[in-house]
Amino acid sequence: MKPGALLSVLACAFAAVIWAANGDDNLVPPRREVYGNGRIFDISHRYQPEMPEWESNDGIGQFLWLPKSMKNGSLANNSEMKFPTHTGTHVDAPGHVFDHYFHAGFDVDTLDLDILNGPAMLVDVPRDSNITAQVMKSLNIPRGVIRVLFRTLNTDRRLMFQKEWDSSYVGFTADGAKWLVENTDIKLVGIDYLSVASYDYLIPSHLVFLKDRISLYKPD
């Protein structure tokens, strides 16, 4: 490319940036789910007031404020956010259900990024059951697989797109969690609602997973 042509391209790009910065009612922010020709899939949910909150029928409500706004004369826009850490797409820290882990500082930043990043197996769970030991055995997940995303009836029911919390969601029973820990190499468990554990086995299933510091990713 000739220098003149390069300068023309740069000038056009600069003009486009200036035009965008000056504001345009038709600007649409890009929101992609697939990157690098399928190398990375973003399966996180966008935070919005109507997304479900644990044991609430009102969703998370307002969670974003703009105390400093350029429209009101501030030099920059500065936002404040407030919502429970157990909201939307999140991972559970080991201290979530173990107080000694909590006070020892086992926060999410102590989780292994090598476990949290990499290829994952997507598994469809039978739609008529929670994830029990029997279900886990029937899935025939091979040894060596360390990241599994469990797609359940929650996805079919689009529970993450309903404002009202639903206690009938699908999750792991205690024996299902125990079977996974004892019979697979899985270190990351992903599921498609606010809890990896079914409501009737809420704490027992978490205790099984987090005792061995299995990373729990939800919702996918």
Automatic annotation (TrEMBL):
Chief location of this protein within or outside the cell: secreted
GO process terms (BP): L-tryptophan catabolic process to kynurenine
Pfam families listed in its UniProt record: Cyclase
Domain of life: Eukaryota
Enzyme Commission identifier(s): 3.5.1.9
Signal peptide limits: 1-20
Gene3D superfamilies for this protein: Putative cyclase (3.50.30.50)
This protein's UniProt keywords: Extracellular matrix, Hydrolase, Secreted, Signal
Group of enzyme by EC: hydrolase
GO molecular function, one term: arylformamidase activity
Subcellular location: Secreted, Extracellular space, Extracellular matrix
Similarity section: Belongs to the Cyclase 1 superfamily.
Protein name (database record): Cyclase-like protein 2 isoform B
Organism expressing this protein natively: Glycine soja
Organism taxonomic ancestry: Eukaryota, Viridiplantae, Streptophyta, Embryophyta, Tracheophyta
